[in-house]
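ENTRY TYPE: paired fold submission
RECORD: A
CONTENT: sequence, then structure tokens
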Amino acid sequence: MIEKIITGRLKALTGLHIGSGDLTETTDSPVFRNSDGAIIIHGTAIAGSLRSLATRLASHFGFKECIALDENSSSKFCNCPVCNLFGSINSGKNSNEGTASKIWMSDAILENDSKTSIRDGVGIDRETRTSSRAAQAKYDLEVIPKDSVFSFKLAIEGGVTEEQEKILSCALAEWRKGRGYLGGNVARGLGNIQLIEIKVFSINLSSIENLMAFLKEDDPTKVADEEKGWLEVKTNSGRSLIKCSTNNEYLYNSFVQLDFTLKFTGGFVINDVLKAVQSGFDFCPRMENGNFVLPGSSLRGVIRSHAEKIARSLATLNSKNAYDFLMKCPACNPFAGKETPLTSCNILLREHKRKHKDEEIKDEQMCLACQFFGSSYKGSKMYVGDGYLIDSPKIKIMDFLAIDRFTGGVREGAKFDALVLWQPSFKVRIFIENPKEWQLGLLMLVLKDLKDGLISVGFGENKWLGKVIVENEAIKVGAISKDFIPSGLKISSSYEGIFNTQILKIDSISEPIELWVREFHNILSNFRRENNLVPTSDTYFKDDIPNLYPKEVGI
């Protein structure tokens, strides 16, 4: 029987995509709807995300580690606390092995009036900085807008142990702090959720009166007793159990959260094709649910592309010739084919897997960019959230035309116009789980160039659009124990859930940042590719380019 019920609301802090798996005439990937057409989040999706988080936290309390964290034990029976709470992953060989879930997760129903939108995605060619048509990297998906609110209801059966309650409470505490993620395209800005208005109810069915009242009432919380402070008590108790600092990359050990304002010095537009058609302009800023949006995927692409440039530039300075560079090449072109310069790691690893079918792909077999930003063989742990306008929008209409190189006049058919956001400011958040210090160092170098106005975002870079600077940078660092705090920082007295946290201004931690950048240089200088995972060629070390444009001999 049910002994506890936890209720609340799931608030979307960014756009949200819970795919249905279907393909429609409107979009490649619509969101999931029930038979009545209402947008819902399946209970299985919520429970799966919560279980994944609980699995990666449980080992820190000294509890038995789930076999889900062991790549070589996928078929074995597991009786860890998480499997006993959420249900066994595998049934085991004997009929008495395996347990059903003690958690009943209800579907989450959309409670407010939110209009979905179709979001386009496209891959950007690293050389031309335009759409990568050769890679056929165009796609679209339906997105539930920011600030959408869903119902949340979780019922717990009897027989749940104290340690299982602590694991569950610590996972819920992370969601309450806004560090929950659901659905697809999480690394590209979607899926960040927060659990709000949490209430915990206990149901006592030991008497006939309580049992009858429970059976007659449609809403069981009306005949239950609210346990105020349950989440705080259980979370604090779980925090006191933290004993070990297991250095397992599959566990949830630490996080770094960067918050800053992107301020555009001029015009800015990321085209919304549907809005452009409706407005009659060729280009129109992206809007969702009536609000202007800077998609996290767009900013993430800019950050990755610039990080690749930094890494390749430094490697070029320290390379003797083309072969030496290719062996050291720290960043592939993710859209490059087999015979294209800077062949993508996905292509190289696919060829490698054909010859070594049983071999697991390791991090060191990928370039540094794919290790950090992800590839087909490794998901990224860096989530770049959507940016949302924090000031009143100013709109300008701009006309563009091309000049005929022979006549000096306007080229026929080459005129277009655009609605442009003028000098907008967007609030942006980047979240990294289990960051390595070299990754922080590389990200700090990118952030510095952003701050110095050296990076453009959006359409029209050559038309002086998209120029941006960074303001109000702050970094939040969370660690399960002092062993996971980045170099140069000290443990604080502040806690969020079970994580020791501290919020710092970027300008106040120049010494730690220097250590992280130094670690990036160290990793970069020691990076070497395996002989069968070397790109075919490079864009710089070919023909007479090194002679025409000699590289610098020092920094």
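RECORD: B
CONTENT: sequence, then structure tokens
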Amino acid sequence: MDNHFFERPILNSPYSYPARHWELDAEGQPTQRIVETRRRAEFITPIPKPKKQKRKPTQDALIFDEGKGLSTEKQLYDPTPIINDLRYQVDQWRKLPNPRDWLVTPETERLLQHWRHHSFSSFRPFFCQVEAIETVIWLTEVAPKMGKAGKVFIDHLANANRDANPDLMRLALKLATGAGKTTVMAMLIAWQTINFARRSNSPHFTRGFLVVAPGLTIKDRLRLLQPNDPDSYYVSRELIPSDMLDDLKRAKIVITNFHAFKLHERVELSAGGRALLQGRGGELNTLETEGQMLQRVMPDLMGFKNIMVLNDEAHHCYREKPEAEDEDLKGDERKEAEKNTEAARVWISGLEAVNRKLGVARVIDLSATPFFLSGSGYAEGTLFPWTMSDFSLMDAIECGIVKLPRVPVADNIPGEEMPMFRDLWEHIRAKMPKKGRGKGGALDPLNLPPQLQTALEALYGHYEKTYRLWEKAGIRVPPCFIVVCQNTAISKLVYDYISGFQREKDDGSTILENGRLALFRNFDEHGNPFPRPNTLLIDSEQLESGEALDDNFRDMAADEIARFRDEVMQRGGKLADELRMGKELDDVTLLREVMNTVGKHGQLGGNPLRRLRRHAHGGLGCPDCYACAGRSGLRHTTSLRAGHWPRPAPPVLRSERRGLVQCGIRRHLGDSLRLYRQAGHRSSAAAA
């Protein structure tokens, strides 16, 4: 059977309308047939209830269950979201040759011309990025002037938010992992700020932005949205005409993580002290007020009344459905659902507080997976109904701009229809330790389940071939290898298996068990640890316990650390003030910088190659990108970038609809291992 899809999945340019796609069968697998049209967005989403009518209907509405068994009397689900209709409207509007017919401000017109036609010297925006900002512009500036044609979409958004997000107006943009959500955020900030500078009385525009991320790593990366950052996207990626840069300086941008919305204690009291002060009266309230919380989180935006919120990885933010039926979940799944719900509650409650105290004009959600999680009260895996734009994983693969997932399928279980490795976790979970680093202490890393060892070795075999090809081709940035584990006990076992560990003998001495994947070893053939490890273990327990970096790392990376200090000072802010007062960079800060600069030459996460035996250092990228890649927890990714598309061995792919999303939405953040390998050299053990 021909495997054209696996051999050459790319059909479209990343900069042009995706006019072709690979046909998928009912199981989400490619038929090898190319369809000469754009792929439709096909998801199941809760149907927003229409605005209440004054007159009661005389007959109960029938349930036409096209939501594949999900619809109930309380909640209907629709398999045909409004995205395709809106996409058609935006397509027709984009084709209008005369800018005067676009129904936008002169500033917006100029920005659109720039994004579509400017001769960029380096990074040109992808079509999907431009389409995302076009969708927001159309809904904001064009739809209100389109009569009934525009009112359909405005009403849909209003109804969707009335049901799920009372008092907030949210609009979600679905962009595949790797498609560049940060660039879209920068374009949104530029469009809003430049228009505000010319028409400050318009309710459609603002210069105040609250950017909310799910964690510190992503928050650190989003600093590129600040106009004063040395690597600001507005300049480095030429996102706006140079004469508009002064207008952009008026923007006030606060970047935070949602955990900051949790109310802090104003007074630290022991249980006994609290009981003494409380006496027989009511409960003693020592938490800060909402106003105090906002002053702590976003002091630069106090006094603003028309704030735009940008939610990164927004699938973590939702209000639990009232009166939802209790899900039949047990054990770890129930705990995970409760954790999802609590995190979502903190996030959405924080935004509601911002709206009450200051005022939120609109919330723009960006996510590769804007689906309801377990515990939300909605059917797990159904699309946020306020999602208005979609560029799926398959779209991104067909345009060559996204990492290619590879699942090991060398071994099939007899009698099974699906290769075992496509759902590896279900086959090994009973043999793996529970959550907590201590739970795996008595286990031998070399006794991992055979299925897991086989999967790791299969992926490593493909990685090694790709690494050699890239090395031979002189590609400066090598491929990365990531393993995401279910908990920290498992992560430590897999880490030791991959990179090596010291086994304690009966007499108290130790002997080296070197890593089973040669390129990822952290020890040479004599048992000496490399100053710059090839593999990093990144998890919450490691960071909290201070198990960060080897002392030698600072000496080996002195140049990069000095450069980081200079960049911090140039950016300004709290960390810069602390450095001026003599504070040293702690390991946690350094480690996060390594995570944020993977593959960037001359920086902490890069590969300086100062001498032949220097060893490159791995780091952590976006936690959610890989955690949502699939339930098996094992993925090998190879980056494909426009103008630089290496051709590794054919990947095994599954559609986003059936495989990566429906499995992946249940495995996100939490205590995870990220094992990154930044090659670019061979260790002495590997060379042997």
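NOTES ON RECORD B: The longest strand covers residues 360-367. Residues 331-357 form the longest helix (27 residues).
STATUS: closed
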